[in-house]
Target: SH3 domain-containing protein
Amino acid sequence: MPEAAVCHGEDGQVLRHNSRVGAQTGLPTPRSIYTRHAATFRAGPKRDEAELFRLEKPSSIVILRECGFFRLARVPDGRTGWLQASVLTTRMPAQERRATP
Model:
Protein backbone atom coordinates (compact mmCIF):
# COMPACT_ATOMS: atom_id res chain seq x y z
CA MET A 1 0.00 0.00 0.00
CA PRO A 2 1.64 3.27 -1.11
CA GLU A 3 0.37 5.28 1.88
CA ALA A 4 2.23 2.96 4.26
CA ALA A 5 5.65 3.49 2.63
CA VAL A 6 8.32 4.65 5.07
CA CYS A 7 10.38 7.68 4.14
CA HIS A 8 14.08 7.67 5.04
CA GLY A 9 16.37 10.71 5.19
CA GLU A 10 19.83 10.87 3.61
CA ASP A 11 21.28 9.52 6.88
CA GLY A 12 19.01 6.47 6.72
CA GLN A 13 16.84 7.58 9.65
CA VAL A 14 13.06 7.32 9.33
CA LEU A 15 11.57 10.76 8.74
CA ARG A 16 8.53 11.81 10.70
CA HIS A 17 5.48 12.64 8.64
CA ASN A 18 3.52 15.82 9.34
CA SER A 19 0.11 15.29 7.73
CA ARG A 20 -0.38 19.04 7.17
CA VAL A 21 2.97 20.21 5.79
CA GLY A 22 5.25 18.74 3.13
CA ALA A 23 8.64 17.72 4.55
CA GLN A 24 10.63 19.05 1.57
CA THR A 25 8.64 22.04 0.31
CA GLY A 26 6.95 23.27 3.48
CA LEU A 27 3.75 23.57 1.43
CA PRO A 28 0.42 22.39 2.84
CA THR A 29 -0.74 18.82 2.29
CA PRO A 30 -3.03 17.76 0.82
CA ARG A 31 -2.77 20.19 -2.11
CA SER A 32 -3.77 20.13 -5.77
CA ILE A 33 -1.17 20.24 -8.54
CA TYR A 34 -0.71 18.85 -12.05
CA THR A 35 1.52 16.39 -13.86
CA ARG A 36 3.35 18.08 -16.76
CA HIS A 37 3.39 14.96 -18.94
CA ALA A 38 2.98 11.21 -18.61
CA ALA A 39 3.76 10.03 -15.07
CA THR A 40 4.61 6.67 -13.50
CA PHE A 41 3.21 5.96 -10.03
CA ARG A 42 5.15 3.55 -7.81
CA ALA A 43 4.56 1.55 -4.62
CA GLY A 44 7.14 3.57 -2.65
CA PRO A 45 9.33 6.69 -2.80
CA LYS A 46 12.19 5.13 -4.79
CA ARG A 47 12.89 4.68 -8.49
CA ASP A 48 13.25 0.89 -8.12
CA GLU A 49 9.85 0.39 -6.43
CA ALA A 50 7.20 -1.57 -8.32
CA GLU A 51 5.20 0.38 -10.88
CA LEU A 52 1.53 0.58 -9.87
CA PHE A 53 0.09 2.50 -12.81
CA ARG A 54 0.87 5.20 -15.34
CA LEU A 55 -1.01 8.31 -16.43
CA GLU A 56 -0.40 8.80 -20.15
CA LYS A 57 -1.24 12.52 -20.30
CA PRO A 58 -1.09 15.55 -17.99
CA SER A 59 -3.62 15.40 -15.18
CA SER A 60 -4.78 17.10 -12.00
CA ILE A 61 -3.64 15.25 -8.85
CA VAL A 62 -3.58 15.77 -5.08
CA ILE A 63 -0.28 15.63 -3.17
CA LEU A 64 -0.69 13.73 0.12
CA ARG A 65 2.94 13.37 1.35
CA GLU A 66 6.49 14.25 0.40
CA CYS A 67 9.65 12.16 0.66
CA GLY A 68 12.84 13.49 -0.89
CA PHE A 69 12.27 13.88 -4.62
CA PHE A 70 9.05 11.83 -4.54
CA ARG A 71 5.43 12.75 -3.80
CA LEU A 72 2.58 10.50 -2.73
CA ALA A 73 -0.40 11.52 -4.83
CA ARG A 74 -4.02 10.62 -5.44
CA VAL A 75 -5.38 10.73 -8.99
CA PRO A 76 -9.01 11.62 -9.85
CA ASP A 77 -10.16 7.98 -9.89
CA GLY A 78 -8.91 7.49 -6.30
CA ARG A 79 -5.73 5.47 -6.94
CA THR A 80 -2.62 6.53 -5.04
CA GLY A 81 1.07 6.09 -5.69
CA TRP A 82 4.48 7.76 -5.47
CA LEU A 83 5.83 9.79 -8.39
CA GLN A 84 8.92 11.90 -8.98
CA ALA A 85 8.52 15.58 -8.13
CA SER A 86 10.17 16.51 -11.44
CA VAL A 87 6.99 15.58 -13.36
CA LEU A 88 4.88 18.12 -11.42
CA THR A 89 3.86 21.65 -12.33
CA THR A 90 1.53 24.33 -10.99
CA ARG A 91 0.38 25.08 -14.56
CA MET A 92 -2.96 23.62 -15.56
CA PRO A 93 -2.63 21.24 -18.55
CA ALA A 94 -3.78 22.72 -21.86
CA GLN A 95 -6.72 20.31 -22.22
CA GLU A 96 -8.07 21.37 -18.79
CA ARG A 97 -7.61 25.10 -19.57
CA ARG A 98 -9.73 24.69 -22.71
CA ALA A 99 -12.45 22.81 -20.77
CA THR A 100 -12.71 25.46 -18.02
CA PRO A 101 -15.56 27.96 -18.70
Strands lie at 31-35, 39-42, 51-55, 60-67, 70-74, 80-84, 88-89.
